[in-house]
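Here is a complete protein record:
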Amino acid sequence: MNNKSEKFKILAAGDIHGDSRLTKRLAERAIKENVDLVILTGDLTFIEQSTKNIIGPFAKANKKVLLIPGNHETIATADFLSEVYPNTKNIHGYAVHFGDIGIFGAGGANIGPFTHLRESELYGLLSQGFDKVKNSKVKIMVTHVHPANSKIEKFTNFFKGSGGVEKAIKRFKPDIALCSHVHEAGGIEEKVGNTRLIDVGRDGVIIEI
């Protein structure tokens, strides 16, 4: 972002669950919208299966990708995908900078077959990432699971929100918090304090900064 009038554009999506047709559509949208970055908020696979053509379409489109694991894949699978494809990074417990934008994240969830984390672990990973971006002008937090006591939580009786994620939002006050996990809440946006919380959903959302 060299120019103040220049917008940094992000396409964020989650809960792909191995659907290569979906990733192809998302990659086409990333090209059409001329996004600077793609963020994938976990559940890239369906119970560790079908990793083929999940990141490939974005790599072919020459798009930078940040990802985290959901509760359907291990951290090792997320690491594998980030190592195989160029311009791709797993930010589970890590952070990256794009100019004055700092992005940090933690994947997994408080339920599910893989990357099942305790609330204290989720919060600790987010704290670790936040420490690296705390001086950024714009801060974006990326998780798979939604925060407890959010509107998103009301869309499901099965997926309980995360107290660790709620605590991180309230303490770190990111400008934007992205999640997925609850398919029925895809596209839902709300405010938690001054934080813009978005369930990015399978169809994805465009965010301009």
About this structure: The mean pLDDT is 91. The longest strand covers residues 101-106. Helices lie at 20-32, 56-60, 75-84, 119-133, 163-172. Residues 176 and 196 are 5 Å apart (CA to CA).
